[in-house]
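Entry 14. Ran structure prediction on the chain below.
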Amino acid sequence: MSERLKDQAWLTASSTRAVIAALEAKGLARFVGGAVRNAVMGLPVDDVDIATSLTPEQVIQALTAAGLKHVPTGLAHGTVTAISGRTPFEITTLRRDVSTDGRNATVAYTGDWHEDAQRRDFRLNALYADPDGAIFDPTGEGLADARAGRIVFVGDAEARIREDYLRILRLFRFHAWYGKGEADAAALAACAALKDGMARLSAERVNKELMKLLAAPDPIDAVRLMQTTGVLGQILPQARALARFEAMVAIDADPLLRLAALIDGEPLTVAERLRLSNAQRDRLAAAFGAKPALDAAMGERAARAALYEAGWQAFADRLKLLQAAGGAAAGPLLGKLEGWTRPVLPVSGKDVLVLGVDPGPKVSEILRALEAWWIESDFPEDREAALAELRRHAD
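Output, structure tokens:
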């Protein structure tokens, strides 16, 4: 008797049952991949994927007949997304690879569940479950791997990687999130041997995998393995500050800040290499800024002045990077400043003009001098005092 998934709300949800009923009316369908894996491991399930013996055209017909919406998200690879109860379900026809260039595969449909399992990356991802929750484990090892936290390629590790070099990064990401104990030696050896193949991956895909890895609760072991296999240097030569990165893991869970801790300067080069968004690029650059000078042990008055100049995000990021490098803990100072709102200078250019100063560079010069006084004075709200100081600078 096969084992069954238990106490899974997603399995019995009306939205799920509607999709399964539509597919089962025309053919066979099983849950596959992450939902089954996470259910076995006792982890939350975010996305529910389904494998089916139906072709994409038959899937569309079945969903239409059941009154369910669908989106042709990947017809070239046999994937249709069903929308049921506002929840998306990715439905993919059983398939096998005909050819691959190391990233994109040409597939052929099949009715063989074992054949479909053989083209998946890791054994714990090649788990299926019937509509009633009965687990189907074609590789014979996926269920044991999921329970033990083993990330092992389906079949030959090098063959799986040559089909798609992104699987190298996926190995380390899955180890960071689901792995327990020692990593699979054969998998690591294959990654080390074939790491040069990652050069054909797009920066966007590398970025996505790396950020997911860095967001894991504890990615330290995975990053260490990436370094020892040469994978880390292959995708990011600037990733040289391992000790600071490891310290940052205990300080903050933000993947971008962990990335900042991992790299040895060169934030703009890293941003370009990983095709970070403009917002991510700017944040990364600001985290490596030299001014204003910061120290978590500084007084609150000096800290407010620095926070006013740097902005909250850069101020917090830089203090945490300093802590990760061996400096004072950032938390106490950040806690004291929490809720402090960057104030607005109580006078403006109009006030300068009222004093008879001609429009032009002189106005900005006076305002900059006044702002320096205002910051040094710890941001007084007294407009009259500010106007008095303004008159002194305008004379």
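The longest strand covers residues 87-93. Will compare against last week's run tomorrow.
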